[in-house]
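hey so i finally got around to running the thing on that chain from the lab meeting. sorry it took forever, my laptop kept dying and i had to restart like 3 times. anyway pasting the input first so we r on the same page abt which one it is
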Amino acid sequence: MPIFDFRNEDSIGSVYSVDTGTVLVRVANVEALRRMQVNHLVVLRSSKAGQHLIGLINKIMRKALIGLDEGATEGDGGDEDSVDNIVRISLIGTLLDAVGTEQNVFRRTLETVPEIDAPCFVLIGDKLTGFMRAISKQKIEGQEPLSLGKYTLDEEAVAWIDGNRFFQRHAVVVGSTGSGKSWTVARILEQVAKLPNANALLFDIHGEYAPLTGDGISHLRIAGPGDLAGARTLNDGIVFLPYWLLSYEEMLSMLLDRSDQNAPNQAMIFNREVVDAKRAFLTTAGKADVLANFTIDSPVPYDIENVLAKLNALNEERTEGAKAGTTKAGDFNGKLARFIQRLEAKRQDRRLGFMFATGADAKRYEWLEELACVLLGSTKMRGKGGVKIIDFSEVPSDILPLIIGLVARLVFSVQQWTEKDKRHPIALLCDEAHLYIPERNETGVSEAGLRSFERIAKEGRKYGVGMTVISQRPAEVNRTVLSQCNNFIAMRLTNADDQAVIRRLLPDTLGGFADLLPVLDIGEALVVGDAAVLPSRIRIDEPITRPNSATVAFWDCWAAETVPNVIPAAVEALRKQWGGA
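ok and heres what got predicted. didnt touch it at all, straight out
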């Protein structure tokens, strides 16, 4: 049944000018003009039966023309005043009453343009809700689309987006500090978690999402210095990421000083010894099929201590000299010293214990399968929440891009090697993305981590890996990654550079829609993209559980009569690298 049953008397005006994508409507009813607002949706009757054109108001103006009747003289009562109320509308698509067996199908195409004098109607209330529900309906019968909140210009209309397209085609959630980004992400995650086989990973950099709970949500944490003693199992939610998961380039980005004149020799020797160590492990484990095809980058356990011992031996090696009874320095004598020192320093750093102090359990061949099940398992597969929030707050900032990139690469690789018809899609939500998906790489570590996200942005869709970029500084997020995102939830942005980035990513037909970015209220967002189909200004609904916004009430704290002295405990936690938050 068609959702539009407008009568001519409901019209706000009629078309008097048309070009390719813009329509001018003359409004005679002043009361109707006063009720209209920029960014309201309107409906125009098409020249084809069974079709309605959908447009977005981008300008409301009044033109006053003052002239004289021909032959009259000034002051004799012949002055004539003429006022035109004009509304400029950008056409953004067509609603078809029926396509085959489907009813109310919206398409982002313009097969026709309205005729001169065609009536124009404002889309509000139940008709707006029905229209948005129709264009974002799910293929699965009875399943509701993803709900964000209410439309700012009509708070009785519920704002829905297509959950399939939102995660399939990558998304961006941006906004200045305090604009409501975390609130929005929590709202989305709570709905995802209700699905029986939800599968998503949120990279939580500051422990901000710790309060989120529910049957569909589980919490993981990258091991910190305080987790290095005692039993270590993935069932406890403590995640170790052993060094042998790193690719050759990732390992070198952390250990190799490329300005060292001996860097080529160090890289070559390290490559050889790691390959030998992996070969020895596979031989002992009896994995002949893997042994025949593995490479330096294959995620195969090996003993870093044995590799280090061989590097030390080569660094100190002396061979027989030209004269009997004499010796000379070996080919690599003294050339590996700086590399060895860096490797030893990393091994001894308790902050990196999640990589180098994993214990015997994480050196088993089967351990990678167990980790992959934790990271990629859906709710029913794991018997726990399929929305997994991973806390990276104890990972040192200088290697944070590398470690998050490692997790993302691992997820993508497992999906890539899963049989096509058996893949279960997974979404990666990248909070504070500017920290590890940067526009400018200052170190090899950040460059190594960035490669994983660039590949996911370009190829993730075909392997069932979706990505949502969340940041307060879109100007500092990698352009390649942002350009692959087709959905945008843009909250208040006050920085001109950040506004410019979002403005460039939005379709040209939206005109000045992005001009609203600096004036949005807290919790308000502009939603644009394949999932929303229509550009919309939405007030995001409050999530059931609020994240820790980390916003401190300065004035209230200063006004308190007493304040506990927590500085000694903080200093001790700093020394131990344990217990801080």
